[in-house]
Write a structure and sequence with these properties.
CATH topology of the largest domain: Rossmann fold
Pfam families: UPF0261, UPF0261_C
Largest sheet: 6 strands, parallel
CATH superfamily of the largest domain: Uncharacterised protein family UPF0261, NC domain
CATH class of the largest domain: Alpha Beta
Protein name: Tm-1-like ATP-binding domain-containing protein
Strand order of the largest sheet: 7-6-8-9-13-14
Number of helices: 14
């Protein structure tokens, strides 16, 4: 029989969790309860708060005596982050659900993030309708708005709890019987303005027996890809769209953080990298663009996204940073430069066409790349040319097959 883990503060929200427990068990599933509160629970859990605290080397009595909510949340959260994956590996549960406000959400989501992708994870939260990046990270946690606070049983909360219970039960209970052929996994990065390139490359790879995972280079996309590479899921990386570095260096809204381009090099995984969409920095609606950029060249991508053309100075910095990251590779790294343009709108008669800006980018890479480590290839193509895409794909295949480039 499949089992759903229910994790939460059974001291302050015992009535609510008991209600959800009964619902899930009524659907023919077992439950496995984990108490994350500081004080005595309303019902006997399968895993006590003392066990959660002990997983982080702390004592629950000492936590209670401090009467420091922030400290308790931090310690119990870290205990959960360590303990929950161990319980999953031991076969104690098949999916996990929790309910809470900002504190309860912070308590359990780190543990959910530590579980493998594909394990059902549902967080019903008062903060689910806002910016959930802090809670979800690069995981596949499902965030469900609680609408009302998780406090007591009423006509609204009971319906939300029912829907949540049915959702986690469905995810845990029903599994597809479809047999999926296991193929080598390739990670690729794409933006709307590099879609033709990545589509050509994807089709080329798929015809030759590879499965391609496409990551939208919007910050979280790059972070998700880096995490999957780090976790050992990926056998080859086609990182053709490195635009997230524009936002990281210039100050746009879609940056992927300072560790972008780290994982493949550290893991020694074959990677083919290019400079797709490095002609643009991303902002929200035009009125949200910082005033310091008022005189720059802009392009309205859609009502909620405004693009700003990178200038010569910025492209030099971006090129230097990309070269620095690639120089960290152990082996099997290729940098490909599309000499006729880096995005759909960086082409003759297009909004961001800029030979001077592109040349500054290319020269920065040429002068800073360590060609004892990284192979530099320059092609007389636009990035969205089929020839460029298929050449990149074949180079990656050759590296994955340990052939000479």
């Amino acid at each position: 029989m499949k089992t759903v883990a229910i994790a939460g503060t059974f001291d302050s929200k015992g009535q609510e969790y008991a209600f959800v427990k009964e619902l899930i068990e009524g659907l023919g599933l077992k439950t496995f309860t984990i108490h994350t509160g500081v004080f005595e629970p309303a019902f006997e859990p399968d895993v006590s708060n003392a066990e959660v605290a002990n997983a982080y080397g702390a004592d629950i009595k000492e936590i209670a005596e401090r009467k420091d909510r922030a400290y308790a949340t931090e310690v119990l959260s870290k205990g959960m982050e360590k303990l929950v994956p161990e319980l999953y590996k031991a076969g104690k549960f098949d999916g996990i659900i929790s309910f809470g406000g900002s504190g309860g959400t912070s308590l359990v989501t780190p543990a959910m993030r530590a579980l493998p992708i594909g394990v059902p994870k549902l967080m019903v939260s008062t903060v689910a309708s806002g910016n959930t990046a802090h809670y979800v990270g690069t995981s596949d946690i499902m965030m469900m708005p609680s609408v009302v606070d998780v406090s007591g049983l009423n006509s609204i909360s009971m319906k939300i709890f029912e829907n949540a219970a049915f959702a986690i039960a469905g995810m845990v209970k029903f599994e597809s019987e479809m047999v999926i052929e296991k193929k080598p996994l390739v990670a690729a990065t794409m933006f709307g303005v590099t879609t033709p390139c990545v589509d050509y490359a994807r089709m080329y790879l798929e015809k030759r027996g590879y499965e391609v995972l496409i990551f939208h280079a919007t910050g979280t996309g790059g972070q998700s890809m880096e995490a999957l590479i780090e976790d050992g899921f990926i056998e080859g990386v086609l990182d053709l769209t490195t635009t997230e570095w524009c936002d990281e260096i210039v100050g746009g809204v879609l940056n992927a953080g300072p560790n972008r381009l780290d994982a493949a090099g550290k893991k020694g995984i074959p990677q083919v990298v290019s400079v797709g969409a490095v002609d643009m920095v991303n902002f929200g609606p035009r009125e949200t663009v910082p005033k310091q950029f008022e005189d720059r060249k802009f392009y309205k991508h859609n009502p909620t996204v405004t693009l700003m053309r990178t200038n010569v100075e910025e492209n030099i910095k971006i090129g230097e940073k990309i070269a620095e990251k690639l120089n960290m590779a152990k082996h099997d790294a290729v940098m490909m430069l599309p000499l006729k343009g880096v995005s759909m709108i960086d082409a003759p008669d297009q909004a961001f066409y800029g030979k001077e800006e592109d040349e500054a980018l290319f020269n920065a890479i040429r002068s800073h790349i360590d060609q004892n480590i990284v192979t530099l290839k320059e092609l007389p193509n636009h990035i969205n040319d089929k020839a460029f895409a298929e050449t990149a794909a074949q180079i990656l295949i050759d590296m994955m097959n340990q052939k000479k480039i």
